[in-house]
User: Which sequence fits this backbone?
């Protein structure tokens, strides 16, 4: 009886681990989608109100949840206070500091930081086109993640069950 | 309105090295009037009417391209796109109403100026208000607590904008000569209000509505329709459309205060369209300014050209 309960518990825990892995993948995709949404808000705000970046970021910060809101409002605050000699530096610092809890992968972290190099220093039309291209690149990244998601989810669940069974056999 | 420290407002928009040079170069109590930043040239500033070459380490500070770029970044809050309309006109207004003139490579599209890139020169002029400079004028241009249609005639640089700004403030707030009333201001070049993000940085009174960066002719019509002002104030009327709108505003029950470039009443009355208004005696008062010192009033006249006051 004890063996049976032990086996069930092992299987449940490995399946749980597999499930958690799948959820993490889904949540990561959600984060990328939310970041894309934020950039589309920034683009819309620049096009519509044409106000300086600190204002744009503050307005978008009010509409998004934390830690994104905090990230944007702190960036706006630093830009308003002219905290550094270039906007890219302010953007980099704030991205590193406030988006840390998202645990973005290196390539995605670089992608987000890249936005600081063109935001603000281009004239309106060029900035709009650049932002559109940037959003397209984000779409591509999201698509890549989404494509891999189904197979990874399947593998995650299978591995969960398989590793559980393997452990049971090993321990019996 | 709270008046902040002008020098502080100016210093925070300067590149870090220039900031240090300005702070080191200013003697205590000296009033900063202008800073001229030219790429590859010594940094110059005007304090109390005297030009100074500001020091670097052991020799004059030579401005670099990077410093000009950094200054432009600070001026625009890292957002040059938001100031492209102002850049087209060659200047932008910063917090405090200070005027920043820029020069560099002008981008022209279909014969029209589109933007200025590669900014090589920046001229920062500290905004100054002379509160009370209209005290002498107000008794002559008011009648029974109401303001008269007034035209200020002055050559450039003689203080007509400063005068009109103080008139707006006094009419809006009210005083012993005139009852406080709503004043609509069309500020095409942001000179009267020195607006920063729509908020006037100069004291224009508590009953003043301002249309910033708005063409004068359209602005006057908009104000009449939307804000029902008792008085409309515009600076430097000149084009046919401006003067037709002035006439229209006068016929709508609004009192009008306007300024125009000119030496005296004769010269103003020889102007093509404005001359008609003067001959029709639509303006009830003329304030003629000029002289060696800015703000000097040469005379105040009534609609028939009779002298009410001589400077």
Assistant:
């Amino acid at each position: 009886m004890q063996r049976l309960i032990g086996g069930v518990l092992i299987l449940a825990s490995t399946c749980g681990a597999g499930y958690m892995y799948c959820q993490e993948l889904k949540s990561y995709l959600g984060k990328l989608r939310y970041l894309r949404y934020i950039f589309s808000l920034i683009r819309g705000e620049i096009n519509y109100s044409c106000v300086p970046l600190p204002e744009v970021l503050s307005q978008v910060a009010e509409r998004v949840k934390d830690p994104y809101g905090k990230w944007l409002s702190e960036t706006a605050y630093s830009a308003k206070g002219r905290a550094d000699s270039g906007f890219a530096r302010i953007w980099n610092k704030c991205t590193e500091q406030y988006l840390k809890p998202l645990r973005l992968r290196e390539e995605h972290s670089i992608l987000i930081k890249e936005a600081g190099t063109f935001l603000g220093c281009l004239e309106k039309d060029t900035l709009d086109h650049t932002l559109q291209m940037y959003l397209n690149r984000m779409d591509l990244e999201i698509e890549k993640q989404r494509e891999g998601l189904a197979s990874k989810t399947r593998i995650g669940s299978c591995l969960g069950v398989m590793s559980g069974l393997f452990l049971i056999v090993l321990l019996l | 309105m709270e008046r902040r420290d002008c020098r502080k407002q100016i210093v925070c928009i300067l590149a870090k090295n220039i900031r240090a040079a300005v702070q080191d170069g200013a003697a205590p109590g000296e009033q900063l009037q202008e800073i001229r930043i030219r790429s590859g040239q010594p940094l110059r500033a005007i304090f109390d009417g005297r030009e100074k070459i500001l020091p670097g380490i052991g020799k004059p500070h030579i401005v670099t391209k990077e410093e000009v770029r950094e200054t432009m970044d600070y001026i625009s809050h890292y957002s040059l796109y938001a100031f492209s309309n102002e850049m087209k006109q060659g200047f932008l207004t910063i917090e405090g109403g200070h005027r920043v003139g820029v020069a560099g490579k002008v981008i022209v599209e279909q014969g029209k100026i589109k933007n200025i890139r590669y900014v090589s020169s920046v001229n920062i002029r500290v905004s100054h208000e002379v509160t009370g400079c209209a005290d002498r004028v107000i008794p002559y241009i008011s009648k029974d607590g109401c303001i008269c249609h007034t035209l200020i005639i002055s050559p450039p640089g003689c203080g007509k904008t400063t005068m009109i700004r103080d008139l707006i403030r006094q009419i809006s707030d009210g005083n012993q000569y005139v009852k406080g009333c709503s004043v609509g201001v069309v500020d095409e070049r942001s000179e009267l209000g020195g607006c920063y993000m729509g908020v006037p940085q100069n004291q224009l009174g508590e009953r003043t509505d301002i249309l910033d960066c708005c063409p004068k002719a359209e602005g006057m019509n908009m104000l009449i329709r939307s804000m029902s002002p008792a008085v409309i104030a515009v600076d430097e009327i000149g084009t046919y459309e401006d003067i037709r709108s002035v006439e229209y505003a006068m016929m709508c029950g609004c009192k009008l205060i306007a300024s125009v470039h000119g030496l005296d009443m004769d010269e103003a009355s020889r102007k093509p369209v404005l001359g008609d208004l003067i001959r029709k005696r639509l303006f009830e008062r003329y304030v003629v300014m000029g002289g060696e010192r800015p703000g000097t009033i040469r005379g105040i006249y009534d609609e028939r050209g009779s002298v009410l006051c001589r400077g």
Chain A touches chain B at residues 46, 50-56, 79-80, 82, 85-87, 90, 119-124, 127 (CB under 8 Å). Chain A has one domain: 2-171. The radius of gyration of chain A is 22 Å. The CA atoms of residues 8 and 168 of chain A lie 9 Å apart.
